[in-house]
Amino acid sequence: QIVYVNGDYVAAEDAKVSVFDRGFLMADAVYEVTSVIGGKLVDFDGHATRLQRSMSELEMVSPVTMEDLLEIHRQLVARNDLDEGGIYLQITRGAPDSRDFVWPDPDEVKCGIVLFTFEKALVDSKVMDDGIKVISMDDIRWGRRDIKTTQLLYPSFAKMQAKKAGAADAWLVEDGFVTEGTANNAYIVKDGTIITRQLGNDILHGITRAAILRFAKEAQMQVEERPFTIEEAQAADEAFVTSATGFAQPVIDIDGATIGTGKPGSISKRLREIYTEEMT
Ligand code: PDD
């Protein structure tokens, strides 16, 4: 496959990054994952806007313009003949000539940039028929989860714990309330109302979340943005998660408690249908 690294399109096996790259040494990097359906980018503008915000919160200077970035995404889709899947993009604070906790001067050290594509079936997915099980875990991530950084050790650890417990994912809990999933936003449905945590520094502002809530409101569904507990979720009629590469996925079991009938709920299904129709 062809990847993009610091200005060049090269075969993945020929791509090189420095051992001093701060993304590699310190997770001093931000990222985005944009899905591709039928060779088209889904909500590129949403991802580009969030990327710019992540960079500005961390005082990173983008090595490319957003127009360049769109062109690179399109080039990679074309060069890899990608029909359905996604594009991973990472911007790091670059590679100074030594390891130092202090950020390098952006005039001297330019940010690094890497992109690659992956194939994944997004529209026809078996999880839709079955739903997934989740377990709860303490949310011990740092307090700026609204910035999409590559500090993914804890989410990855949490997902491994879920796997060991026979579940597919973990819902993270802080001060008694669910924040989000390891790589998705979390929702419950009770008496027809869709409930999801309000935006803040404690969760990622999902691009799929924004679209799903917009479509839900357009379809006259009730939406409440507020925190909820695991106990409230276990007693809900439905639960689901959203992400760029998962759309809306039903959750049918939380810490061993069956949600609703144990089958994907009708609102979760309907939202996935609307999202797929609108985005493809
Ligand atoms: N994850 N919350 C977290 C912690 C995430 O990592 C993600 C995305 C989301 C959903 O955001 P969006 O709808 O913009 O994809 C919420 C990506 C897909 C990943 O890490 O692969």
Automatic annotation (TrEMBL):
Keywords: Amino-acid biosynthesis, Branched-chain amino acid biosynthesis, Pyridoxal phosphate. It comes from the Bacteria. Pathway: Amino-acid biosynthesis; L-isoleucine biosynthesis; L-isoleucine from 2-oxobutanoate: step 4/4; Amino-acid biosynthesis; L-leucine biosynthesis; L-leucine from 3-methyl-2-oxobutanoate: step 4/4; Amino-acid biosynthesis; L-valine biosynthesis; L-valine from pyruvate: step 4/4. Gene3D superfamilies: 3.30.470.10, D-amino Acid Aminotransferase, subunit A, domain 2. It catalyses: L-isoleucine + 2-oxoglutarate = (S)-3-methyl-2-oxopentanoate + L-glutamate; L-valine + 2-oxoglutarate = 3-methyl-2-oxobutanoate + L-glutamate; L-leucine + 2-oxoglutarate = 4-methyl-2-oxopentanoate + L-glutamate. Its EC number is 2.6.1.42. PANTHER family: AMINO-ACID AMINOTRANSFERASE, AMINODEOXYCHORISMATE LYASE. Belongs to the class-IV pyridoxal-phosphate-dependent aminotransferase family. This is Probable branched-chain-amino-acid aminotransferase. It comes from Celeribacter arenosi.
